[in-house]
Amino acid sequence: MTSEPGRAGRVFVWTWLHGQGEPVVAGAVDRVGADRFDFTYARSYWENVNAISLYAPELPLRRGAQEPPAGLRIAGALNDATPDSWGERVIANRLGSTEGELGLETAMLESGSNRFGALDFQSSAESYRPRQDTAGLDELYDAAEMVLAGEPLTPALGDALLHGTAIGGAHPKVLITDDAGTEYIAKLSVSTDVHPVIRAEAVGIELARRCGLDVPGARLTTSLGRDVLLIQRFDRLPGGRRRHVVSGLTILGLDALLGARYGSYPDLLDVLREYALAPHEVGRQLFERVVFNVAIGNNDDHARNHAAFWDGHGLALTPAFDLTPQVRSTDPSAQAMAIGRDGSRTSQFSVCVAAAADYGLSRPAAKEIVDHIVSTIETQWSEAADATGLSSAGRNALWRRSILNRSTFYD
């Protein structure tokens, strides 16, 4: 596959294959019509004995152009690697435009190369040139505040902040690497935060770890006197190697709008079971995450806040992430995705137990999981809050409000 300058909208997709520290060109994305993007594998790629599909259910490894799944403008596995709202905001600031003016090709080619999973977008099929300028954390913090305030960045700071645009989400974040070469997503507390969201997420991760959930390594630090949560990247391996990851949204075959309306945990589980590397374990794993989100008041558990590793043959859940207790009242809440096949979303443990069969569990087994998570949180809340330096005000804002809100116990 070679570059075709006369073909408007062509973007080349590069990927890291298993065990390799350098990427190879996988194929190209082409704009077809006003709002459809097809993908074609490069001949050099499908002839490579080590090649895997970028995600077999929607992009099987074969010749010819492939249209995106019905209802999507681009294949989900490719969309997972594009910047989300925060990234688009940084790119727009850097280019002196608005987020609404950014075309998908611009978002692909102007965002950083150190993006989610094992893909990157380039303007060439012949040579790979990473976009990964960086700066000190303090400088990046100031740059993030400038973006939030709508102030233009200097070219150097714009290039540095670009490095974090490859990671999804709406909250400001940057990417950093420590002296040992370990990569982290650094989530920043900023002046627009109305509650201690960074320490709330830190305590959510700490409680999840104590409950036995698989979570990434995380630690708190400060920059310019403000909180920073460093979350170790689970899609990175030593030696520059990357792991293929697809979001829950891609697994469901939905876009963000349809995912918010129709996404459900049982539907997600159906696909995970079909392609799971450990099909007998995934139901319990997903159920534990549902119960934990209900327990801590995290109703921002939409499909893009779940993900699975893809190795070319099967799926395995990644560590749980974005476990942030949300501000709420004492009234019953609802999860972003349906808990049971009946469409129930109410954030109550009784709803979780009633859906036990959807996860391959008996009601007693489901109740045992609920009891374990609730008792662990109740007995270890104080230690978890101490470990994350949560203030008295922060504890009062979360305990029995977001975390173990009394409405979650209503039958």
What's this model, at a glance?
The protein is about 35% helix and about 15% strand. It has about 400 residues and is α+β, with helices and mostly antiparallel strands. The chain folds into three domains: about 10-120, no CATH class; about 135-235, Phosphorylase Kinase, domain 1 (2-Layer Sandwich), CATH 3.30.200.120; about 240-410, Phosphatidylinositol 3-kinase Catalytic Subunit, Chain A, Domain 5.
Number of helices: 14
Low-confidence stretches: 2-8
Question: Which architecture name of the largest domain does CATH use?
Answer: Orthogonal Bundle
Quick one: biggest sheet? 5 strands, antiparallel
- The assembly state of the depicted protein chains is single chain
**Ends distance:** 60 Å
- Integer average pLDDT: 88
CATH class category name of the largest domain: Mainly Alpha
Q: Structural class of the secondary elements?
A: alpha+beta
CATH topology of the largest domain: Phosphatidylinositol 3-kinase Catalytic Subunit, Chain A, Domain 5
Q: How many domains make up the 3D coordinates?
A: 3
C-alpha Rg, in Å? 21 Å
- Could you spell the SSE succession in H and E letters? EEEHEHHHEHHEEHEEEEEHHHHEEHHH
**In order across it, which strands form the biggest sheet?**
4-3-2-1-5
Structure summary, number of beta strands: 14
The helix fraction, in percent, is 25-40%
